Amino acid sequence: MNKLSPMLGAALARGTQALHGTSLHIGLSKNALGLLRTRNWPRGRSELLIERTLDASSQQAIANGLRAALADAGCSRMIATVVLADDLTRLFMVTPPNNAERLRDCHAAAAMRFQSLYGEPPHDWKIDADWDARRPFLACAVSRPLLAALQQISADSRLTLTGIVPQFIAAWNRWQRRIADGAWYGTMHGDTVTLGVIGGHRLTGIRRMTVPADAHYDEGWLSDQVTREALRLALPLPSRIHLAGSAPDRWFADSVRTPVCSRLEANLDVLAFAGESAGVALACTGVRR
Description:
Elements: H1 16-20, E1 22-28, E2 32-39, E3 47-53, H2 59-73, E4 79-84, E5 90-94, H3 103-118, E6 125-129, E7 137-143, H4 144-156, E8 160-166, H5 167-175, E9 183-189, E10 192-199, E11 202-210, H6 221-232, E12 240-245, E13 260-263, H7 271-274, H8 278-284
Parallel strand pairs: 1-4, 4-8, 9-12, 12-13
Antiparallel strand pairs: 1-2, 2-3, 5-7, 6-7, 9-10, 10-11
Helix pairs in contact: 2-4
Keywords: Plasmid
C-alpha cells in the first residue's frame, strides 16, 4: 500500500534544520487546538506546549486562536506540521476517465467529482490527491482561505511549514505498513469517524460516520457499522479495523467480535498527552517515536 500525498500548499524544509532542529506539531479542529514540540536530535520525549478550546463560529476565529496560541507559547524558528481534523477538510474518491493519460485529466476528474458531491465549484478549495490515471484515488480539499491563513500565520511566526494534512492522511502515512491484509483503516476525532475501505492492498473507498453519544459506551458499535458497510458494498468482511485518533477505549475491549478493533498508536509515549484534549490528540497524529 502506498503513501498518500501529505502536502497541501507547503514548502518542504531542507538542510540541517530538518535533521537536528525542533519540530512543532499543530493539531487544529473547529473547537480545539494543541501544540506539541519534539526534538529531532537527539531523540527525546515530546513536550506539550499548549492546549486550548476554540470558537468554531468561523475559519477566521480558528486562525485567530492559532495565532494567539503560537504567540503565547513563544513558537518560532521551527519546522512545523499542521494536522487538520477531518471535518475541516473534504475527503473523497475519484475514478479517472478511461481515456485519462495526463495529470491534468486527473485534475479535471477531481474537480468534476467535487462539484458532483458538494454542489459547488471547486474554485475556493485547494485539491490535492494521490493522483493516478489508472485506478480510483483519494482526493482531499481544503478551503483556500483557511490554507492562506495558516500559511500567513506560519510566516509571521517564522515557522517553516512542511505540511498541512488531514488527520486521516497523516495517520495513514504513519501507520500504513502496520495495516494487516484483510483489514480496514479509520480515524476518529470528536464525534466523527472517517473509515477507509481497503481492497487489494489499496484504499478503494472512504466513508464518514457520525458517532452518536451512546455509541461511545457500546463495544460493538463500530464493528457493527463496518459489517453493514461491507455488506452494502458486497465486499468481504474485514478481519480487523485499525483505528487512529481519540476513539473510546470500549471499542477495543472486545477481542472476540469480528471485525476486531485495534488501536494503531498503542504504546506510544505521545499518548500520555492525547487524553488531555482533542487538539493535542490531533497534534500527536503521525508523530514518530
